[in-house]
């Protein structure tokens, strides 16, 4: 294979994994490694003995002195007690990672803008319960009011600009994306994806809008206002907010991926949209951010309360999310946390206010430096945490006939996620082969993964599946439930598939897709996206190779009139059949 072909494979790989990259904006695996220096103090109740060995035992083999790596800082009681970098910050010039260098924090950047809004709210300069349209020109009103608070809490119902750009054939991080283009995504949106406040859906578009609102309120650029009123007075004097694509940021680390057969690559983002991301900071800068949770050098108790208070959905459910920061529990201790991804940087921030203890870990080597920050916290704070004995499940004997009734395809309520259960070697499996063991007539358990699976059957309804698990981005902070409904599987004939062939257009995206039958499979053809295969799920519904869900719509006379596309963060993007 030629170098050119390999390069093309790389680009194809980037596009194919773009949804994974987006999810990494809510769900990112954090990589870091550190060595420790002790400052000689003894901190009562904290287990620091052997901490260096503990961290070393968690270090992945991929991180070497000559590879990209990561940095870590551990904070306690107004002191940075451990801090070090591993691996290289710049491979071209052999510069090592260090606590003094700057790293792009990705979505961890959101909390600094969130804190700015908490300050403005406390000073009466903005009302976060005002409609967004009061601050922006030519802004759609929709049928339900969307407020600034909805933007801050990921509950607005607005489109995700990143997802919409991808559907239009643009590659996130490579193709240019500006703030104005993000705003235009919402201006072109026909209706809200859901009622504001009814659902938490991680949404970076909202944070781009927030930066625009801040500029209207303060009559100053968002990056300048946050720098002058939050970062610098807090002591984050080397932190820097990227304000334009290609800006030179002194002392900033590079991030890298490794492609077998090609070597290291340093991705360059073609967007600089403060609000959603683009704060560069050092470990020493984050030390001052941790310190401010207690000292409130910037802000006050009222500001902090506004900033941290979790939003409650319309039904009263807590989102465990404040203004750009997660507010949850970890084994009995309150935890403020967030993760971030940008280029090949991965960041995780954890702060335990009751112990005034924080961890910041930043990788510049994608997932190759994965280490569990929750395990470090559990090691140090063990005396304060509540550890529950792991439940020892006993296998429950059910018949093969009962198991066969559970086999099949299950679809999420928003029709944007599917999971399949199959019997392999007389055992029920999920996700391509992971065994789940019955522990009662309707409950199963995964030994390898730890999640539980409950099947609920109601007369006149299809079987519901509830999966209870701890998300990898928030291990130790509580169990999350995902719900699915069993659907009838569908194997369309070639004659059936032929009926979907046509050209379709999205007015919202100004984009055409052509559906063709290639061999025995439908595919989407697009000028920039190329050819995307479609696999049948249930009647009129397909799953694409890009992990979009394509559901065709019919008229009252059963004629195909178009289709909707649903993805992880974007729902019901309609493509009308061309006549």
What's the main sheet like?
9 strands, antiparallel
How many angstroms does the end-to-end distance come to? 43 Å
CATH topology of the largest domain: Beta-lactamase
User: What's the total number of strands?
Assistant: 30
- How many DSSP H or I helices? 14
The chain-level mean pLDDT equals: 89
Number of domains: 3
Please give the share of residues in helix.
Answer: 10-25%
Query: In what order do the strands lie side by side in the largest sheet?
Result: 17-16-15-14-22-21-20-19-18
Shape: globular
The top level CATH class name of the largest domain = Alpha Beta
Radius of gyration: 25 Å
- Low-pLDDT windows of residues: 1-42
The CATH architecture name of the largest domain reads 3-Layer(aba) Sandwich
Name of the CATH homologous superfamily of the largest domain = DD-peptidase/beta-lactamase superfamily
DSSP strand (E) fraction?
A: 25-35%
What topology emerges from the helices and strands here?
Elements: H1 3-16, H2 18-27, H3 51-58, E1 70-76, E2 79-86, E3 88-90, E4 95-96, E5 103-104, H4 110-122, H5 148-152, H6 161-167, H7 179-187, H8 205-218, H9 222-234, E6 240-241, E7 257-259, E8 263-265, E9 279-281, H10 283-295, H11 301-308, E10 326-330, E11 333-342, E12 345-352, E13 357-363, H12 373-380, H13 400-406, E14 408-411, E15 418-424, E16 427-430, E17 434-435, E18 437-438, E19 443-445, E20 452-456, E21 464-469, E22 480-487, H14 494-498, E23 502-506, E24 511-518, E25 521-526, E26 530-538, E27 541-544, E28 549-554, E29 560-566, E30 573-577
Antiparallel strand pairs: 1-2, 1-13, 3-4, 5-9, 6-9, 7-8, 10-11, 11-12, 12-13, 14-15, 14-22, 15-16, 16-17, 18-19, 19-20, 20-21, 21-22, 23-24, 23-30, 24-25, 25-26, 26-27, 27-28, 28-29, 29-30
Helix pairs in contact: 4-9, 4-11, 7-8
